[in-house]
Amino acid sequence: MSTHDAADDHGRTPREAELARENARLRKALERAGVDVDKALEEAGVARQATRQAHDEAAVAAHDHAEAMEQGRARLADAEALNADLRRSNEALAASEAALNQSQERFHGLFAMNTLGVMIWGPDLTMAEVNDGFLAMSGYTREEAQGLSWRELTPEEFYPVTLRAIEQIQATGESTPYEKQYLRKDGSRWWGLFAARKVGDVTLGVVLDVTTRRQAEEALRESEEQLRLIVESARDYAIMATNPEGRITRWLPGATAVFGWSEAEVLGRPGTMIFTPEDQASGRPVKEMALAREHGVAPDVRWHMRRDGSRVFIEGHMMALRGPDGELRGYMKIGQDITERWMAEEQLRQSETALRHLNETLEAQVDARTAELRQAVEALHAEAVDRVQVEEALRQAQKMEAVGQLTGGLAHDFNNLLTGIVGSLDLLHRRTAQGRYNDLDRYIAAARGAADRASALTHRLLAFSRRQTLDPRPTDLNALVQGMVELLRRTIGPHIRLEVEPADGLWTTLCDSNQLENALLNLCINARDAMHGGGRLVIGTANTRLDAAAAKGLDMVPGAYVALRVSDSGTGMPPEVIARAFDPFYTTKPQGQGTGLGLSMVYGFARQSGGQVRIDSTPGQGTTVTIYLPRHKGEPEADAAATELANAFQAGANEAVLVVDDEPTVRMLVGEVLRELGYTAIEAADGASALRVLQSQVRVDLLVTDIGLPGGIGGRQLADTARMSRPALRVLFITGYAENAAIGSLEPGMQVMTKPFAMDALASRIRDMLRGAPQAGDPS
What we know:
Number of helices: 24
Structural class: alpha+beta
Number of strands: 22
């Protein structure tokens, strides 16, 4: 081993040292074989370097090829993705074109709608295009509409809401639909529901004309407001509502006015709180609600409770409130406070019962009084009767004086009238027996005048008692007053100035004109007596409508009335006299100058005719008496011309009249009139005799009968029985005391006359009935 090798082995591992030794042996072997080891190593190094370079180049080429392959694969994927994108783009383009076509079709359809206004606004918010619908709404032509700004179409008070909508479009691209008014070309306004959307540089707007709906809504609001005001202001009507269980949910001011509780005090409380304890105990509230549920409404006319514990009489009803599906939503109760009217009617019923009893016993009282007085007079004149008996009779007469107060004044007046009648007839008989006929007319006139005054007194009694049989006919008050002017002037005398103030267009009223004339005459006489030194008397007429409040104050039914007013400038009456003015037999005149029946008769006539009388007077200034009579829709009847009995209508051939009256004088007089007129007169004294005639074959065209007949068959019963076999028979009732004449309602073909009557009036009435002229009770 050489020094070099030894040095090389120094510091090597055994393995490395062994390899180095192996390399040295190999080198020596190669050198022995003639190989230039260093050159070979050099060439091997060059070859190795060349091989390393070729390997590196191959690696680069392989890398480049791999990159090229990768890029090719990427380009292929990109191409495939591009193709896919292209396909999708084509599909989207086709869909967009279809949507665009569809959108254009919808837009053209929208633009062509006449019920919808379509507008296209330019960037400056002037109108670029508009459809026919908007032109019809606004009244502009297309040329006039193009170029208009929104301000030219909008009322100034709607500028703020429009500007807010424009700001919303600019910010979000569209506006929330809203309603506003638009101006038409002629300046009128219309309501439109508007919405808009920005499309590119333009704005597309649509508007729907909602004027009709807005007008309907406004009318509904006004109607509801009016109804609310009416309901809330109806203080005379209590209105409340409850839920289905009966607890109060609404309590209007009228209920507070009637019952006293405020709304806050009653809400949520049971509606039974207004019922009386006895009604609550009997289950009345539950029954009322059940009836309302079953029939929709239940009457409620009874006493109720107020907050202060008092009672109020309510006239009303309860209604069930149901929704559109029929489900019960609750109840509504409406009622009116009629306590005063009910109390007045109750008092009136009691008064009428007492008066009816008085009327029913009047004749017996008069007979008893007369008998007692006769007994007293006979006892006094006989002087043969024991003094004790005379004193007893006088005491009995004094007992009857209270009863006689009612009839004494009448007996005195009737005695005076009968004296005039009997005296005149006596003188008439004497002058006739003596052959002296010069003054007969004077005595006849005196007897007739006394009889007429007796008749008027009877009518006054019957009118006050409300038992008088009236003959109501359509009447023109202006014509009636005008026809009495001369009579009234003569009655009141020249020292009183009479003025008549007729109303224009005066309505017709239905009343007994004869009784109204009598009432007017009585009022004028009273006015005359109140103006001793002369004065002014005014008779006026007027049309009057009474609402619920005014009618309640006059104790009348609301409605239309005709008023007859008599005013004087006399002494007037204090309140205490007015309060008793309508009382029977009450008078402030000196004894012997009045019966006190005048105003009572006027009051009875007015009430029986469905009206009222009111007095307005101030002491020292005068008095006004007003008669209210209900309005009648028909036309007034023309006055029949006065006809003398000798020239009365002639009877038709063979016409026959059956006269039934238990008074021979009446039968004689009526029969005589009929015979003078050419009728066949058949007389009967009672109902049984008349029935035998009516059930025979004898011709009877008209039945004239009294109401009260002897024998158990009254006049009305006779007429009804006769009509069973003679249904077309016409009937004229004649009566002198209507209280006993239970006539009832008159059927067609029936009329009535009150005794006494003039013979020419009887003849005219009979002729009218046989000719078939429509009268009261007949259909017209």
